[in-house]
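User: Working on a comparison across species. This one is AarF domain-containing protein kinase 1 from Anser cygnoides. Can you predict its structure so I can line it up against the others?
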Amino acid sequence: MARRALKLASLAAATSGIYLYGNKFLDPNDFGVVRVGRAIATTAVITYDYLTSLRSIPYGSEEYDFLKSQVHLRSAERLRELCCANRGTFIKVGQHLGALDYLLPEEYTRTLKVLHSQAPQSTRQEIEQVIREDLGKEIKELFMSFEDTPLGAASLAQVHKAVLQDGRTVAVKIQHPKVQAQSSKDILLMEVLLLVVKQIFPDFEFMWLVEEAKKNLPLELDFLNEGRNAEKVAHMLRNFDFLKVPRIYWELSTRRVLLMEFMEGGQVNDRAYMERNGIDVNEISRNLGKLYSEMIFVNGFVHCDPHPGNVLVKKCPASGKAHIILLDHGLYQVLSESFRMDYCRLWQALIKADMKRVQKYSRRLGAGDLYPLFACMLTARSWESVNRGIDRSPVSASEDVEIRSNAAAYLPQITQLLNNVPRQMLLLLKTNDLLRGIESALHTRASASSFLNMSRCCIRAVSTYQRSKSHTLYRRVQISLTEGLSLWQINLYELFLWLKGSRLGNWVIALLSWMHHSTY
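Assistant: Here's the predicted structure for AarF domain-containing protein kinase 1 from Anser cygnoides:
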């Protein structure tokens, strides 16, 4: 009897296995035990590699540094494979790590960057299912045409080009159907694994990563929230005529489906595209800096995912002006007033190389005695450059290598800092690194104009705050006059820089020099 039951159980298991394998709508990756088992196995292998590979090697030796780099690379590749296999939340977290160029070892950031182009795609059946469930209609009822191949696929969703029945061309963002159900379990799994790793490596401080995912993922999975963010930032930055934000079509949008105006262009880091289309690279870099300075310092409402796929550029045929198109508004950071003021004053101190104030405001933002490292993390410059003044000279190739090497050398201190600073700082650091990556691709990094724009925004933000706290008309007028004078000085300095770099300026300088010599 027992033997017969065992045969029946085996037959049932085999039949179930064949059915699951042959059923195109079921994916083994969707089963919790597979995802959990894969994550545990990968974590165990990476932990064992770090524990054993460096055990008998003298710390600080050339051999130790070489082997550590090899372990970093092997571990990053295993982590990338885990993210690609488990998809969804895992890819999202991997992309976040890949964006921290100057905060994590280069082996990790270089390896994980590819996750931006290796996100999974939902099938046509899955797309139809989501649209049917959320909009109550079939694709052919809603659209005259709908392109099967997505314009782009990300960790949480993919975007398709379509034409509505009334002839409007739209972009349709559709959430991967399994992400909602898996995300909370995935985050819990990451939290448990990180806690276990921390018991083995006490210096391992990556719980901030899980905390950020817990807070931000539910917001990113709500496309109605993304639509509201898009409208808010478009209104907030309406004075910048070069900025374009796709209009949202609310009547056909839900928490999992977002319909918006279709816009296209070249990626913001594609210098060759800009040169082919007659777009001024320096103007684009300058305008992008203006946008983010306004968001961070003045408004405290910051688009925190400016990777090149989310920032497009296009030359308007009618006006000849270059537009910046800002996409994907799911991830924003709202800065508190006190944090924003401290951050403003810290950047003012960094630009002026006022080291006492750098120390003061770094400590106020949670850096403690690690304030020199914090200043280097914020600026992606060496401590020597920070002391000399970050606007004094461009970033050299050797300095860039030094910063990236330090990310590996000071990893325990960096992770400690990330655990201590306010949560608002974490997405700003990621945003800073993404913007620096764009500037590096365009060869416009650390330009004087970017620091001038930051200075203007900091002055305006601090002056507005001071006026709001003043109780007398005299004091408010005094603040406004000081603000106007400071802005005038920046404008004058900018004019000087322009004259210095222009042909007219060279003529003027030559004429003044000739007049000076002829006098004597």
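For your comparison, note: The first strand starts at residue 143 and ends at 146.

User: Helpful, thanks.
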